[in-house]
Design goal:
alpha+beta, four-stranded mixed beta sheet, 53% helix
């Protein structure tokens, strides 16, 4: 399938949010609360003439998606770039073309394309600041063989989601990282 065909297969942001079983309120909260600085608004508005589209590989259970999807959606609305969302596990043929480090099905992945469906930019799954935070938090999780692994993993992931909900520093780092990708 072409990128345009994948795009056509995807859900709009509202359809995606309506379909969610996990993190729905959190994504809506971040979307409603995130503010885009005027300087970035002006840059994003310059993208309107490009007629780009974005297809996003994601999943409602994903903490990185909880953080990135609403922020980037807000940016795309300013730029008047149409977005579509695909569940990663239902679209592995596309996902496997965008593996992180060539091996990992990390999400979210945002694939920016021109009006003809040519890939222009790819961003995801995290900004470098979020990556550093996640790597540090994951050090708190014991080895999988440890009897406390599952319980501690649940606690750490809950702490990360909570931090993503309230730390504007991470919100800003996502915006800055996407800005650098789009305008480089």
């Amino acid at each position: 399938m072409t990128l345009l065909q994948w795009f056509e297969k995807g859900m709009t942001f509202q359809q995606y949010v309506d379909s969610m079983n996990v993190n729905k309120d959190e994504i809506q909260y971040i979307f409603d609360q995130v503010k885009v600085e005027e300087q970035l608004v002006r840059k994003l508005e310059e993208l309107k003439i490009k007629n780009w589209k974005v297809v996003t590989l994601t999943a409602d259970w994903c903490g990185d998606a909880l953080l990135c999807v609403p922020i980037i959606q807000k940016m795309m609305e300013i730029a008047q770039i149409e977005t579509r969302f695909l569940n990663r596990d239902d679209n592995l043929e596309l996902m496997d073309q965008y593996l992180t480090n060539g091996t990992s099905r990390s999400i979210p992945i945002f694939i920016f394309m021109d009006q003809d469906g040519n890939e222009m930019k790819v961003w995801g799954p995290r900004s470098s600041e979020v990556e550093a935070f996640v790597a540090e938090k994951k050090k708190e999780i014991p080895d999988k063989e440890d009897p406390d692994f599952q319980a501690k993993q649940i606690v750490v992931f809950k702490e990360m989601r909570s931090t993503f909900m309230k730390e504007n520093l991470f919100w800003d780092s996502v915006m800055k990282s996407v800005e650098e990708k789009l305008f480089s």
